[in-house]
Design goal:
The protein is mainly alpha-helical. It contains 11 helices and no strands. Helix 6 crosses helix 7, helix 7 crosses helix 8 and helix 9 packs antiparallel against helix 10. The radius of gyration is 31 Å and the shape is flat. The termini are far apart.
């Protein structure tokens, strides 16, 4: 059984290495038809590769399967937000399908390596089952947690930057800038997370969306109540005549929310400081009380 498993794993590794090396120029050789095509009439056109097995066709088959498996495993472990939304939020150049392919690929690679190591070391069946099931799932969840942590960190940065951005928007609107002009100015002059989001808002407006529609799209991706409130105020651009004052009031409200959260965080850290102090004080006190108690028990038991 061990020899058969090693033979199967060797065939799989050989096939994967062949497909990868075939894409590299030093290991690939042009087909005979391509080499002879310049010397025949009408031979400059490349021959059709339809139906040929290649890395590209293999990727086209694996991508939908990886996306489906990845979404099911993520939902199984309680991840409800779509991967495409999180990747778009952090401005990742990788699409959701590519990320799922990477997740499944790394999980399969770890599964193959773990199987080979467990077979060579002849681990017990229980440990082998743990390796075959636990390691691929662990790798998948680590990559899922990495993008989730990046998404949460981005939302946090937007929340902390939003009061300053809202105040600047209010000043620009109050000084006569249009909504699109104010957004473009902040996008050009800023270098934080919110500025990158506003660059995407400007790009979406150039693709045909209105300013309000692009801002609402940003609010959906940002997933922050403060951004929703700010965008709802900015949506009054065509109706309100004192939009700058309204945005300024909303900026002050957002700043109060940030300060309130900061105070709560400081209070939680202050309470956490007392935990080791309490433990360090409680243990010696208990020991001092325990000595006479044990002595009293020994006296009563002796009598």
């Amino acid at each position: 059984m061990t020899i058969r498993l090693l033979f199967l794993l060797t065939i799989v590794c050989w096939l994967g290495a062949t497909l990868l090396l075939a894409e590299l120029r030093p290991f690939s050789r042009r087909p005979l038809t391509d080499r002879l095509s310049p010397y025949v009439a009408g031979g400059m056109a490349r021959p059709s590769t339809a139906g040929m097995f290649s890395v590209g066709s293999f990727r086209d088959v694996v991508a939908p399967l990886s996306r489906s498996v990845g979404e099911r495993v993520a939902k199984m472990f309680g991840v409800s937000e779509e991967l495409a939304v999180r990747l778009e939020r952090v401005h990742s150049p990788v699409s959701s399908t590519e990320y799922r392919v990477q997740q499944v690929g790394w999980s399969v690679a770890v599964l193959i390596v773990g199987t080979i190591v467990a077979t060579v070391l002849q681990v017990p069946p229980a440990a082998l089952a743990l390796v075959l099931v636990g390691t691929p799932v662990l790798v998948f969840l680590v990559m899922e947690q990495r993008i989730a942590a990046a998404s949460d960190q981005w939302k946090r940065r937007v929340f902390l930057e939003l009061p300053v951005v809202a105040e600047q928007l209010g000043m620009l609107l109050g000084s006569g800038y249009s909504l699109g002009g104010a957004v473009n100015r902040l996008a050009d002059r800023g270098d934080g997370a919110t500025a990158k989001d506003l660059l995407r808002v400007r790009r979406r407006t150039r693709q045909g969306l209105s300013d309000v529609e692009a801002l609402r799209e940003w609010a959906h991706l940002a997933d922050q109540p403060a951004v929703d409130r700010l965008v709802s105020v900015l949506a009054l651009n065509s109706d309100a005549t004192d939009l700058g004052r309204l945005v300024g009031e909303e900026a002050r409200s957002i700043r109060r929310d940030v300060q309130r959260e900061l105070i709560e965080s400081i209070e939680r850290r202050t309470q956490q400081v007392w935990i080791p102090v309490t433990i360090a004080t409680l243990i010696p006190g208990v020991m001092l009380m325990l000595v006479p108690f044990i002595d009293a028990l020994s006296v009563f038991s002796g009598s």
